[in-house]
Amino acid sequence: MTAPHAHHNTGPTGPGAGTTREPTTKQLWATGLTAFAAVMLLLTGVLDIFRGIMGIARDDVFLATRSYVFQFSLTGWGWVHLVLGAVAVIVGLGLMKVSTWARAAGVVIAALIIIANFLSLPYYPVWSIVMIALAAFTIWALCVVRKEGDRGLFD
Question: I want to staple 141 with a disulfide (CB 3.0 to 4.6 A). Which of 18, 37, 105, 127 is the partner?
């Protein structure tokens, strides 16, 4: 007499069997969202670098706004955006390697980009709104990705 479940194969049977597993749907989504966040952060960073260069060069694209509470010189805003953009590009490249530090830093830098673009909204409203949306999508993608067994916010 044979055991009722004797037909199930419970162990590796051939060379290399059991060494590779097909990724689960959850793992595929996590990988896709991390790649999405990396590309979005790179895109946001490059756009912010361009915005910073335009501000430093005092491009005529920006509006002249009087009596704004968060008023800085256009060159000052240019440097803020240039630095944020450069850091965003570095963090975006780190996300390509799916590192934990890059996920945490990605959320922080995207939040700073949102704040900077909100504060400079009167100078170039349409671009600011687009940048806020891109950074928000980046934060969403980085926060939604969780690996099995994660306990912390970003691990």
Answer: 37
